Amino acid sequence: MTQARKTKTAIRPANGRLAMTAPSDLARLDAWEYAPAPEARDYLAIKPRYELFVGGRWQKPKSGRHFATINPATEETLAEVAQADAADVDRAVAAARTAYEKYWRRCPPAHRAKYLFRIARAIAERSRELAVLESVDGGKPIKEARDFDVPLAAQHFFYYAGWADKLEWAFPNTNPRPLGVAAQIIPWNFPLLMAAWKIAPALACGNTVVLKPAETTPLTALRLAEIIEQADLPPGVVNIITGAGATGAALAGHRGVDKVAFTGSTEVGKEIARACAGTGKRLTLELGGKAANIVFDDAPLEQAVEGIVNGIFFNQGHVCCAGSRLLVQESVHDVVAELLHRRMQTLRVGDPLDKNTDIGAINSAAQLSKIEELVRSGDDDGCSRFQTECDLPARGFWYRPTFFTGVSMSHRIAQEEIFGPVLSVLTFRTPDEAVEKANNTPYGLSAGVWTDKGSKNFKIASQLRAGVVWSNTFNKFDPSSPFGGYRESGFGREGGIHGLLPYIEARP
Amino acid sequence: MMTVDAVGLEERAADLAKRSIKKHAKIQGLRIAIGCIDLTTLEGKDTPGRVAQLCRKALTPDARDLSLPHVAAVCVYPSLVGTAKKALQGAEVKVASVATAFPSGQSSIAVKLEETKEAVADGADEIDMVIDRGAFHAGRYRDVRSEIEDVKRACGPAALKVILETGELGTYDNVRRASELAMEAGADFIKTSTGKIAPAATLPVALVMLHAARDFERRTGRRVGVKVAGGIRTAKQALQYLVIVKETCGDDWLSPAWFRIGASSLLNDILMQLWKERTGAYQSDEYFTKD
Amino acid sequence: MTSRVAVRKTLKLYIAGAFVRSESGRTIAVRGADESVNVALASRKDVRDAVRAARGAWPAWRDRSAYNRGQILYRLAEMMESRRAQLIDACRAAGLTARVSEKDVDEAIDATCWYAGLSDKIEQIFSTKNPVSGPHFNVSTPESTGVVGVVAPNARGIAGLIAAVVPPLCGGNAVVCLASDADPFGAVALAESAATSDFPAGVLNILTGRRSATAPHLAAHMDVNALGLWDCASQERRELDIAASANVKRVAGYGAADRSVAQMRNPYHVVDFLEIKTTWHPAGL
Fold first, then answer.
1. Residue A175's CB: how many other CB atoms inside 10 A?
2. What is this structure's pTM?
3. Does B157 reach chain A within 8 Å, measured CB to CB?
4. ipTM of this complex prediction, to 2 decimal places
């Protein structure tokens, strides 16, 4: 057998600084290329126009106005959805209030449980349809929508169904009661899953809901409305209204609402907090993050690199808890950077409906230009940028997986949330320094720790100021596991027993 | 030595197994897989007749499609090397022989070396040895390594594949350790299993070994191949292993020079899949000869 | 001569996911709704086989996620719901009135649903992270005890049987249940629902017959970890407790009050068959 050529270890980044193994060194002789493996979408039955789902009926918006939702991978228009204005918000809140007073607050908890079980089952039964719709409306790879978003959404409904008639076991010695009408505003990065995270616990506790999906990703929430219809949920218990920022503001600010739950940017979260000021409304916020993913020299490095890749490139980096700052122990920086660069070459960017695609489309033109602006700042600040070399489709919004080395805490790309497939790599020397850098941010949503040493894992986890700490793993979610942030990443938890708290009144 | 997190490793292997290989990529992949097979018979009841017939199959897997590649090698017990060599005379299909008290390895070093030399003298192109798992678990790594070095010397011109018997090693860390030991001792291939116990080859185990081989090449400049064996019966599994090789080490590893699959019934399942791609109909194994 | 001749069913034991006759070959005739029915009479060897099946099935059942076990219990509720008419008939065959039978079956289905939803919450309700003094991470969590022997209530109907077998199953245990002498019909109807509910073979085993013949062997069996004893008179209970002590079985006793509607929604009926494990780990560099 012949000897292979020694592979070079010189580094050469995309913006002309330093050097690393060039992809061309990993020579592709007689390459085995994967054929397209497209998921079918012809059975999706997307209507040309959707109205508002209020009081158990599909109702036209008062203004008669609609707006388009597009497929960010192709820029084709998928459908028109209703533009809800203040009058529509009024109607929706009123419908939710009526349903609450007349039926839902009196509904035996075991019945609430059974409705939620039905919804969970229906999501599972229609999971392929929902996954394809999610991918087409939001740009995420079908592999992720199919294997992560949709199953977890079903699981969320299933889990909270089980709590509906057991609240006295979650909160012993209290008389747990619902709050009333909950206003829920969700983002575009996990549209169906966020809808599940909001609706399931609210209903389990006996509240009714008005939910506004993000303007770029309304379709799976509207399909969920159809599932809710199919489940014969009493009318008005769940209302779904579509619209943009103004609709959300009107909903959060509505006087007829008892509880507001918001997931989105920190900036808008602060506006909502101001709008709720002095009203006595209960509020939970799940906002942005700039999570540190800490890799020690005694980490299982191959798996740590998988965790880094998953942490920042999963869902194109459109994740509030993304591991966007890699804090790597200086002694293993070069090894990790090289492993990472090599590993990134096998990430497939392209048609989200191709079952082999790893990185889908950026959700919108607006988000793409935000990413580009921050990447430019990284270049301007003198950091070394590495990007995979891959072809991008002609239409649609795309960004290649990217990482910067030579980053320090004072660079914008180490402080501001990019919300894209862009990783900033910083180094540290000692565990104390790692913890200090990790906590040195106004955010506090999540963090990762990679070390083979168990005691170090527990110690570091106890010192990190973050609502979710992933040790030797990343981006793990479960309906039984509470999720939420410290400080400017928000307050309140979703998932687990703690996820019920925001939706009940436990005081005597 | 790099430690391995089992949960993370198994997740990565499961992710790679999800790749969807269709149409021309599937056909190309299956043809590559055929070319990487070590067609194997290792039974107490093997006879010259049996081996000679297997060698015919190795040369011409499918009489209805002569465009298919031949397999990489035929793998037999030492007593049948002569028969295989004769049956494959002039062909490019290699003769691989197990040796060193396969499958248990529980014999003296003298016996193991003698067996190796006899097999090579009879014409074996490749020797598949087993490591001393008893010594490994007792922590006598130096003994494990020096035994491999001795067998490598006894191989002479023949190539050495070192079977780690990963199913007996217990942890992925041990698989990594055994892989590095074998490569440092001069192995030309590291191999997962004897196929005589379960578990045999698995995707996560192969992934660890490919990581180790890739890193070894990076460190030393010498490339050692990887062979997966035992329990690989379906074309789908074969394609999954090819994906792992491709995405871990690169396309140039997708050749019998660097990757082998020890199997027997796999070959016919691949042929059935190729016929399905050709005709659009699901196949029956009655239409494919066992040898 | 034009009326139809019915196909009669033999009521068999449910062991390792299959319906089998007693290894003794014996049956007992029981009066049903319209006819006399032959019911398998479980022997001590059937108990032995059932325990072996349960032990074999337990590790995989225990290792499934709590969510998955909850899904399977929910599936049992679905199957019972779709067989509601058959279950009601079984209750009536045992001698209950139509009205009582309907109430009993609805109660059984709803309780199953309740425990399905409890499956992935038990650990949250009954675990603690303990604030030990010193730099240690210390956590206590429940886990299933193993094979649970259940002597079902002396009642007729299905609800009592559900109250007896679903809580240990919910906790991740494998169950060998001795059905009530009074009602083999409900037991077999439940077994048929379970057999179509994605339960792995051997997780639930139901033996019909006379509990006086089988309960002592179940109680003495060295590979059974716990017993749930319903409606045992004090002398019977004493004898079973003595037999159980041979391998320090956990024994829980229940009576009629424990199958009230409220008590059929009691997480402590699950806790009765759970062990608590506490682990320590240093938290330091």
1. 12
2. 0.93
3. no
4. 0.92
